[in-house]
Amino acid sequence: MKSILEALYHGQLHPDETIVPSHPEYRQLGRQIVAMTEQWRNRLGEEEFRELEEFFDLCDMSDGMHVEAAFIHGFRLGANMMIEVMSKREEFVPNATSGLSL
Q1: ∠ CA 74-75-77 to the nearest 5 degrees?
Q2: Nearest to 94, CA basis, from 81, 75, 70, 72
Q3: Are 94 and 100 in contact (CB under 8 A)?
Q4: Angle between helices 46-87 and 26-43 (to 10 degrees)
Q5: 30-81: per-residue pLDDT in tens?
Q6: 8 Å CB contact between 91 and 83
Q7: Nearest CA among 9, 71, 2 for reference residue 63
Q8: What tens digit of pLDDT does each residue of 15-38 get?
Q9: Residue 70 to residue 99: CA distance in whole angstroms
Q10: Are 92 and 83 in contact (CB under 8 A)?
Q11: Could you give the dihedral angle defined by the CA atoms of residues 31, 32, 38 and 43, in that order, rounded to the nearest 10 degrees?
Q12: pTM exceeding 0.90
């Protein structure tokens, strides 16, 4: 079995494609979204619904950027926590005077 670093290097890690939220309401929410989308499709004309889909696409792009930023921040925070634990140093905790940014 390859290491995580080898899999990452070879482009074999795709966590964004395999993550499924475990929240108990996730699947029900998905069904509600599909049902409401169909209601809007039936209620609006073809051009208006296409515009609504473009709006949804923009929202998805914005959400994706936020999720990416949250992932990067979380990864950096976790890495800094490991550095602190392994080095037994406490200087990685940002405060107003340190100027450190995670």
Answers
A1: 65
A2: 81
A3: yes
A4: 160
A5: 999 999 999 999 999 999 999 999 999 999 999 999 999 999 999 999 999 9
A6: no
A7: 71
A8: 888 888 999 999 999 999 999 999
A9: 21
A10: yes
A11: 170
A12: no
Whether the Cβ atoms of residue 2 and residue 10 lie closer than 8 Å to each other: yes
Answer for the pair 2, 12: CB distance below 8 angstroms, yes or no: yes
Output the DSSP codes for the chain: ---HHHHHHTT---HHHH-----TTHHHHHHHHHHHHHHHHHHS-HHHHHHHHHHHHHHHHHHHHHHHHHHHHHHHHHHHHHHHHHHT--TTS--TTT----
φ/ψ region of 80 (left if φ > 0, alpha if ψ in -120 to 50, else beta) reads alpha
Under 8 Å between Cβ of 73 and 102? yes
